[in-house]
Amino acid sequence: MTRSSILWETAQRYLPGGVNSPVRAFRAVADDPLFIVRGEGAYLIDADGQRYLDFICSWGALFAGHAHPHVVARITEAAQNGTSFGLPTPQEVELARTIVEAVPSVELVRFVNSGTEATMSAIRLARAVTGRSLILKFAGCYHGHVDALLVAAGSGILTFGIPGTPGVTSGTARETLVLPYNDVAAAEEAFARYGEQIAAVIVEPVAGNMGVVPPVPGFLQRLRDLTKGSGALLIFDEVITGFRIGWNGAQGKYGVEPDLTCFGKVIGGGLPVGAYGGRRDLMAQVAPSGPVYQAGTLSGNPLTMAAGLATLELARQPGAYERLEELGARLERGLREAVRLAGVPAVVQRVGSMLTLFFTEAPVTNARQAEAADTARFAAFHRAMRKRGILLPPSQFEAWFLSLAHEEADVDRTVAAAGEALREVVRG
Ligand code: KE4
What we know:
Layout: H1 3-14, E1 36-40, E2 43-46, E3 51-54, H2 69-79, H3 90-102, E4 108-112, H4 115-130, E5 134-138, E6 151-152, E7 162-163, H5 170-173, E8 176-179, H6 184-194, E9 198-203, H7 219-230, E10 233-237, H8 249-254, E11 260-264, E12 274-278, H9 280-283, H10 302-315, H11 320-342, E13 347-351, E14 354-358, H12 367-371, H13 375-387, E15 390-391, E16 400-401, H14 408-427
Parallel strand pairs: 3-15, 5-8, 5-9, 9-10, 10-11
Antiparallel strand pairs: 1-2, 2-3, 4-12, 6-7, 11-12, 13-14, 14-16
Ligand KE4 is lined by residues 21, 23, 59, 114-116, 119, 142-144, 204, 208-209, 237, 239-240, 264, 274, 398.
């Protein structure tokens, strides 16, 4: 018995499904999960001493790579002063200022402890300031496990949502409309029919949770125009893309300013974090400056703030994003060539340092096309890559991430392994 298999057996005795988040159970790739004991730069080491080149990067949070000395030093220094005070600290003011100065649409920001809390708070604020109830989201976009956003599309494109999981009531789901991503006509129809009832549209400006699906030209701007025209708010869920695809996030890349933005992952440098922010007149409605209640014992935690500040200091170094763009492009080129040589129907979709290899013929622009991917073939590919010491996110519908710790040699090794793994998968 390996240490990992003993841990896996034990974990299932104490944790639902043996994990603290479903995707970590590796069910989508029909494999046993890893138990990680250490991270080093672009690498993870499991309980049996196996080293893996890591493309999960804690689902995008580890922008600077694992255990970066600068990040560890800042967390250690903060920890030596105490872990939490439940009172304001200088670090939260400093990180808030960094975010406000980096993202033009954000004039005030509030820290919370997860992306879920960020989106939950943002839609509560939107409903409060508009006095409306309806939320519009897009199939394939994930915004955390908020009841109002764990909603599946109704029977027709313009029918209200149905609970996406047991425990979400039909009453809650009925206040959420779910449309196809990148479908401008459907969004126009929804606003024509329900515009006056819509409190907010929430969207991943680059989808990462159906695999990487970029916005088609004009999609985000159309959402901006439709929301402005109807008095609804536009919320960008930049929990993944914030400080990941650029210093100004997806809104900077695509030139569309939302009313509210949700952040997570990178701004906490691997410690629990979320944040929501936006126009001053909106955020000023949040308690205690306004009536919209939201609170959190560990919000703005000094260790998280220290990790976030250290990570953003590394991100804003000259050339950081250019380097990630070069590595991402190198990986994309290499994977496309490997797919061509193996003769496998697959597409590679990338924005900056986040990408997905879909086992499907045609480009993916929405959830229905993503769901057409051959998930069994992805699972076989994932296992073949793991066997070669390359750790991909254990689901076809996730993004691979590069960090500042990845190097050209890591990318070239991954491309070579992918060539072998694809040939193995094709042989079946
Ligand atoms: P958390 O509550 O997990 O911190 O964030 C929720 C969330 C919100 N918005 C977006 C765009 C997100 O991607 C997420 C969380 N992402 C997933 C992976 N794609 C987290 C991994 C997991 O659930 O274990």
